[in-house]
Amino acid sequence: MFSGAAREVTGSCHLLTVGKHTIALDCGMFQGRRNEAREKNTLFPAPAESLSAIVLSHAHIDHAGRLPYLTKNGFTGTIWATPATRDLCAVMLADSARIQVKDAEYLRRHGREAVEPLYTPEDIPPFMRHVRTQPYGEAFDVAPGIRATYVDAGHILGSASVVLDCTEGRQKRRLIFSGDIGRWGQPIIRDPQPPGGADIVIMESTYGDRDHPSVVDMRERLAAVVSETAARGGRVIIPAFAVGRTQEMVYDLHALVKQGRIPAIPIYIDSPLATEATKVFGDHPEVFDTGEHMVKTVRDLFRFERLHYTRDVAESKALNTLRGPMVIISPSGMAEVGRITHHLKYGAPDPRNTVLIVGFQAEHTLGRRIVERRETLRILGEEVPLRARVEVLNGYSAHGDRGELGRWLDLVRGASKKPPPVWLVHGEPPAQEALAVRFRERGHAVHIPAPGDTASF
Asked: Within the chain, which residues score under 70 in pLDDT?
């Protein structure tokens, strides 16, 4: 059953039943309008206790964000993850719990209707006791009749596509769940390693209708944005996922500083989560791309002069009292929650500033409204004019574009004479329809399931 991220991007969750056992592929959080997201996040297509296991592709909140809610509500099985994904979940989901609690408290203090947290920090240790790790390339038994293998998806640290070898009676089928597919040539992490031999493919389609600018060009454009904004006396405000995107931005800013190509202005990472996630990156060099020059030559990729990591609320608030040019990088990546909302509330009205968007922005999120350059933004219950410049650097996306998605599927197909059927998920309808046309031209049967749809393989 296709439960989440069906004809939309957030809330990834798909149920696979083989014989008497049902497992979930991901259990992500829906992001968007508060009340709508709350309704979706609290509805699950099966009783939590009925699941035999959960196989997690990676740690992003839209793939892992509801896991503590499931363990809180009766799930007793195993949650499988790569070692890096487990370590990232430990910090990311604890942070998600804190943000949910604090946002509810903030809205109540200001007389706004609050959405109750799905879970609190006290729910994280019990959740983590369910998580077991498995490295890339080693098969493991998920449930009777379901054997899985992780392969590197090249999306973020620890991200995986999942090979599921399913046996029911005498029938054997190989299902490949793409997870989120990364890009070739990204810094820090390795390129995607598509698995072969698929009978069926469940595949993401986020950027199925467009091509990204070159990864190589992004550093040049970042340098231009920082330099031009600094010349105006403004600040560059970057909503960025704490995992993956923040480290990429730090990596490129580090390179630009070393090369003397941006002004000597302070760079702030305003997020305890990003700070903790960056430590996790340092703990897992085994998944870095050793072909990268800085990976090979720099001892500490994520620390350099001018870079500051803030930790407490007082430090965060103090940033909005400082004068002069600066760069502020802060989650969430879609600008929905967390400290970035306060920076945008303060900085969006100032025409000297730049809001720099470096990742996909789902429908109905604040980030999408910024990309659309709405004249007024609703932030923390208030109407805020958007006078700051808006720049979008989609080349920083950790999702493959339509060409890269096609390349991934071609490698999955390999030498097989019969193209495997494809179910497209994790995409908005225009992107999915465009990608479906391309894949059908290559001989694939393509389906675009709606939430609640089922398919027999």
From this structure: none
**pLDDT in the model for residue 108:** 86
Maximum Cα interatomic distance, the chain, rounded to a whole number of Å: 70
Q: Determine the number of helices (DSSP H) and then strands (DSSP E) in the chain.
A: 14, 21
Question: Is 455 inside a domain boundary?
Answer: no
Looking up residue 341, the CATH number of its domain turns out to be: 3.40.50.10890
Q: Answer yes or no: do 35 and 174 share one domain.
A: yes
- Tell me how far apart the terminal alpha carbons of the chain are, to the nearest angstrom: 11
Which residue is listed with tokens 């969006």?
A: 348
Q: What are phi and psi of 186, to 5 degrees?
A: -65, 150
Listed residue (347, 341, 428) closest to 390, CA to CA = 347
What pLDDT score does 233 carry? 97
Tokens of 161: 């596509």
At 222 the pLDDT is 96
CA–CA distance, 149 with 358 (Å, rounded to integer): 31
Q: Are 12 and 426 in contact (CB under 8 A)?
A: yes
- What's the pLDDT tens digit per position in 150-182? 999 999 999 999 999 999 999 999 999 999 999
One-letter amino acid at 329 equals: I
Residue 80 sits in the same domain as residue 140: yes
Cβ pair 202, 23 in contact under 8 A: no
Asked if 324 contacts 265 with a C-beta cutoff of 8 angstroms, the reply is yes
- Is 356 in the same domain as 226? yes
Residues 161 and 247 in one domain: no
Three-class DSSP category at 300 = coil
One-letter identity of residue 293: H
61 within domain boundaries: yes
157 in the same domain as 106: yes
Nearest alpha-carbon partner for 132 in 93, 79, 66: 79
Number of domains in the chain: 2
Q: Give the whole-angstrom CA distance, residue 201 versus residue 85.
A: 22
Residues 456/235, Cβ–Cβ less than 8 Å: no
Q: How far apart are CA 211 and CA 35, in angstroms?
A: 33
Instruction: Please give the pLDDT value at position 338.
Output: 82
Coil, strand or helix at 378: strand
- CA distance to 48, 176, 212, per residue, from 245 (Å): 32, 26, 15
Per-residue exposure over 261-282, b if at least 16 CB sit within 10 Å of its own CB, e if not: ebeebbbbbbbbbbbbbbebbe
Q: For residue 271, say if its preceding peptide bond is cis, omega within 30 degrees of 0.
A: no
The range of the structural domain enclosing residue 25 comes to: 2-210+398-447
Total residue count of the chain as it appears in this document: 457
The token duo for 203 is 């595949």
Note whether residue 239 is domain-resident.
Answer: yes
Identify whether residues 230 and 159 lie together within a single domain: no
Is 371 a domain residue? yes
